[in-house]
Amino acid sequence: MGITFTTGEIKAVCRRLGLSAKRKGGFIWEGVGHDGKYRRTTIHEHSDGEPPRTGTAAAIARQLLFDDLADMKDFSLN
To answer: Mutual orientation of helices 7-16 and 69-77 as an angle, nearest 10°?
Structure first.
């Protein structure tokens, strides 16, 4: 089985990167990370425990400037 994330885990990664929801309850997250790079991604609102499809999670990882899902998983675990 491949690398998976729940919606809540992806939001936690966004918060650690310094991103926030563009508006309360919004699905566009954006901001400038601690490294000075601007990031923006779309997280379709589902329950925080629900995993998005693998392709969607991979697209989010690229938008957050990670090399791939494994890189994002390593970041989330540290």
So the answer is: 70
Taking every pair of C-alpha atoms in the chain, what is the biggest distance, in angstroms?
Answer: 35
Both structure tokens of 27: 């699905």
The CA-based dihedral angle spanning residues 8, 13, 15, 19, taken in that order and rounded to the nearest 10 degrees:
-110
Q: 3-class SS at 71?
A: helix
Query: Which residues in the chain show pLDDT less than 50?
Result: none
pLDDT tens, residue by residue, 68-78: 999 999 999 98
* DSSP state letters, 19-69: -EESSTT-SEEEEE-TTS-EEEEE-----TTPPPPHHHHHHHHHHTT-SSH
Q: Which residues are 42's β-sheet partners?
A: 28
